[in-house]
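Appendix B: complex inputs.
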Amino acid sequence: MEQVDQLASLVPLLLGGAWLLPLASFTLIFLFGPKMGRHGRLAAYVATGAILGSFVLSITSFTMWLAQHGVTGAPTHASHDAESQQAAAEKSRAFLLEPSTFDPAANHFTSVAYRTDDHHEEAGDDADHLQNDHHGHGTGTSDHGHAAHQAPEKVVYTGSWYPLYRSKTLLIDIGYYIDILTVSIFCMVTLIASCIHFYSIGYMHEELTDELVDNECKLPDGTSLRRRGRFHRFFQYLSLFCFSMLGLVIAGNVAMVFVFWELVGICSYLLIGFYRERHSASTAANKAFIVNRVGDFGMIIGLMALWGSLGTFAFGDVDGRPGVFTLVTQAPGGIPNGMVRLAAYDQIEAGVQPTDEQLAIWREQHLGYGLLIVAGLGIFCGCVGKSAQFPLHVWLPDAMEGPTPVSALIHAATMVAAGVYLVGRFYPVFSPEVLLVIAYIGAITLFLAATIAIAATDIKRVLAYSTVSQLGYMMLALGVGGWLAGLFHLVTHAFFKALLFLCSGSVIHACHTNEMPLMGGLRKKMPWTAYTMLVGCLAISGAGIPFVIGFSGYYSKDAIIAQVLSFSRANPAHAPLYWVAAGGAAITAFYMFRLWFMTFAGKPRDTHIYEHAHESPKVMYVPLVILAIFATGVAWRVPGTNLSLANLIEDGRPVTSMTDGVFWSSLRIPNEHLSHSDVGIHTTATLVAFGTALSGFLLALLFYGTRTLNAEEVQQQFPRIHRFLINRWYIDDLYWAIFVRPTHFIAQRVAAFDRQRIDWFIDSTARWVRGLSRLDDLIDRYVVDGFVNLLATWTYGIGLSLRRVQTGRLRQYVMFIAVGTVALFVLASFLWSYAMAGS
Amino acid sequence: MNLLTQPVGVSHYLVVGAVLFVCGVVCMATKRNALGVLMGIELVLNGANLNFIAFGSHVLNRAGARTLGLDGQLIALFVIVLAAAEAAIALAITLNYYNNQATVDVDHADELRG
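Resulting structure:
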């Protein structure tokens, strides 16, 4: 028990350090960036050192976690959170989520592909100790209490580092919610970010100059733009991004998630617009930012729905106050009392606390369920924006304007994954109806983006659409109840998509063009890039020998398709989801190998580019090799143990309580373990995934590898479809027509009004004021000054005339005195006599 | 009323004082020599002194007036002292003037005219 407590305070400390290191690096570069070596070269080492430190801390906590809790990988589901009657002295403590039902069949879980049945005794023992120490948790689950001996318990550390605000109704703090998923994602993010930092040192070396010529940015006079290199700036943004992303992952409440959500948004904005002088880059940055705001608007609504009804943002319980998950999963029917009360507000008299019976009656009427749906849909809205799902996917392909390492780090591996991660994290709150929406959005995205990727010729755009499509896969998986499948694919995808993007960056670095039709045959020139990219293509297509071994994508895609199949069997009305998922696998394989063959195979199409192409420096291809290793084997089970990525994530499975739809009563979300334990489903899914991927690969081979079939002919055969795909389903044009054009129109009107009316008013006021002041000037000059001057002139004249009296002749003065005195006397006597006569 | 036939009284003193005063004024107005002017000033002052003393005569004192009856005489004493001080200063100025200009003609001393 002591050991557990030690870990409970140590892991948040380690991960908190890993989280804050990039912030320190950001601050340093922000303050001293330009002074760090020549052209800020040292900034790269500061940033890379910080992220490496984060990686080491993450790995340390990961190994400590494994040593303490082990990996069980056995399912924990449908359980209730402990009631928080235990008075924990520490801020953080381990919460034990006790399983209430346990399906023995689930022990066969994934036995075919990637796990063994051996039971982890140690973990079981640990669980027992925990169980004993935390007895009294399971009030509603006592009848299942013995199950804890067989099933592992989910370990979560929650707590708060710094309370921002606490009252009876509201609780906001800087806190953490750490389970094995958090730790795994930390390791994934820091590892990929480290690789990308190293790669960027090579990729961005052009910025190490005082005068950089940007050939893609023409000035009005036709010359290229010249500017100072911004090497340190790039690493500054990368550090800020890593800090934000890690903060998003470790965040203990939704408010904090939202803050970091916006921070990664701003980092993305800054990095997409890194070449800000290029019009396309600044437009793309704006587009990304604005489109994300649309999603965030929904997210704020979701947050308000949560806060207004539950009064807390925290995921887990903090210091004895129940968090959102506890409230939702412990409530009967999944509707927390707060939501019921808020929904039935018109039936509650002011100041009267509704009784339990009343609450039960209202709950029978499904009051509050709508609020739960609003909260779920709202949160999902934010995820739609960040993870580039269907209506808001348009920003991601444009985001490729940023430097390629950024595309790899942010727009493929980590940031766009944040949306999927949040859906996974918030899983208990999503009701089946919301999950169905998520599934459909994911399916639409997956299909739409995959088809666009077929026709794209820009190497980065192909990858961008492939990212959108894979994110669609994850959402689809989460939506059909495949929590593990979605997050599993999230991690494997992060590795191979980062790899693919960095490879494409290496190609662009060598060819100075993004257009695939100008490449070809490059594998002889740049073998490292070509073969690591081949690994990436195989991984994303889900290549493998069925039932034996495969690349990482093989396992995760398999899990997704199995779950979708399971879902479509449970809900035959939603079978199209399964077709899309299976068809998507074929398209994925097709466009990825199309890309590979067009770029690396065949004969060079542009000899000039081919002649100048060269392998990238070591600092760039070594990260490629590291990522290729992970893309290959990240999903493998460590021999002799049951340590595998899938089992790790399985340990972090949240407790969910809703499986059947309420408004849509026929809707059933099947238990994910069914898709693994049911051999029929699993074998079918594996074969279907393998078959479709193989067919996609063969098609690409025929078209672009052996050139048995001519792609141009097909293109001419179906010009409409080709145009439709080239124009990206006209979605951008549609948005242009219904949002951008009207906005421009209104803006122009407003601007014209501003110019013509408001400016006219202000101008005429100014003219009036000028006229008035001119008049005032005249008055001042001639009236006021005239009076003063006149007075002065008079005084001067009098002085002039009087000076003649002062002759300086003494005797004359005496005469004046004498005569004056006599005159005064005469006058006085005259007046005297006059006065006397008067009286 | 004929002053010559009257016994000596206040009016006689006043006449003498007036004569002295007029003599002094005339002297100041006509003399070009600074020392002459100074003498005229002395005459004027002493004419005034005579007036003070004459008006200080106990003959003119109203019965029951609460004074010593010496006001005129005292003021005359003051005037004498003042005259002495004034003469000292004026002589000093004149001497300086003479040192600078080698003359004591007041008509030449018109540098402060307007």
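The two ends of chain B are 49 Å apart (CA to CA).
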